[in-house]
Amino acid sequence: MNFIMRAWQNVLQKTIKNRFALGGFLTPMDVNPIENAESDHFVPPENWSNLSDVTAFEEFVQCDSELATCSLLTIDEIITNEETSSEEEDNCTVKPLPSFQQTLAGFNTMQEYLISSDLNDKVKMALLTVHNELFFCTFEKCPTT
Fold it and tell me: Do 112 and 124 form a contact (C-beta atoms < 8 A)?
């Protein structure tokens, strides 16, 4: 989940705006002209008549030859996959939860690192919230999931 959140935070507002404009979801009044469009293959609608309409048959037929494809599994394949995954699950050892002391030491290490990198107030408040929840869960015996 953290990976997804970090990836989404790296998406620029300009990128989203350009994608909506290229997809035709915005009218010219809604958006300023697109600077440095990301796609080299974008052709404005007024230039569509200039595009070549001659496509070789082989090129047309092979246009999706490199796409990944899949098919439905047979019953035997499903059974084999289930047996294999069940064996793998049986072999897994559940890692024990760290103690409160270990958790607190790890949190303090992370907090020292983050504070040394000149955080904004929003991140400092989030760290305080996590710190408070850590103590609350320990002393109130929060259920673990």
Answer: no
